[in-house]
Amino acid sequence: MGTKGEQTKQLICSKAYRLFAEKGYKETTMQDICESTNLSRGGLYRHYGSTEQIFLEILSALMKDQQNEFSGKIQCGESAAKILDDALTRYEHEMLDSENSLSVAIYEFFSSPHISKSDNSIFYQYLASKKMWTELIEYGVQTGEFQDVDPEAVFDLIIFSYQGVRMYSRLMNIDKKLPQNITGQIKRLLLFKKEDIK
Smallest Cα–Cα separation from 88: which of 24, 157, 182, 163? Predict the structure, then answer.
């Protein structure tokens, strides 16, 4: 597919992302996406056959971005504490940004009866996140910046706290201090106190 076709696909996914975040997966239709992108039905169907196809492409792109988030920084020798701080600061903003959260749409999609129980996309996303975070935590332990913790347990604390707040932020008002409380506790688990460093 040429550059114009790729640009059109990016436009479709960008506009569809906003619709899925705003309306959820179940309430977003191909007609909604046509109206949002100003494409005809034929123009949209030339690229995607269903909202399911579009949604899976969006999730795939998010997962690909996530897989590459830490590895380049680690290879360049960036401080583990700095990588952690940058990631948790972004998580704080995302936890409060309910308008751009796909959490409800993801729940709707994967709990839908027409999705095969053998479709493990969400589990693969979880495993990809675990690999990325485990690599960072092990790197921080090796550099002496992080305490010797169980990387998988800390990852579960991070991911389920993050996703839980993102889900709840769509259903109720979240205190602005909540994300900082969570990320602050994660930092306390991982980072040495200044008086411990000699």
Answer: 182
CA atoms within 13 A on the CB side of 188: 6
130 phi/psi in degrees, rounded to 5 = -60, -45
Tokens of 88: 């948790």
Co-location of 30 and 77 in the same domain: no
What are φ and ψ of residue 179, in 5° steps?
Answer: -60, -40
The answer to whether residue 63 sits within a structural domain is no
Q: Could you read off the pLDDT of 173-190 as tens digits, one per residue?
A: 889 899 999 999 999 999
Beta bridge partners of residue 191, listed in sequence order: 146
Query: In 10 A of CB 95, how many CB atoms?
Result: 24
For residue 146, the cross-strand partners are: 191
Q: What is the 8-class DSSP label of residue 18?
A: H
Percent of all residues in the chain with a pLDDT value above 90, rounded to a whole number: 62
State the DSSP H helix or E strand holding residue 142, giving kind and residue range, or none if neither.
helix 121-142
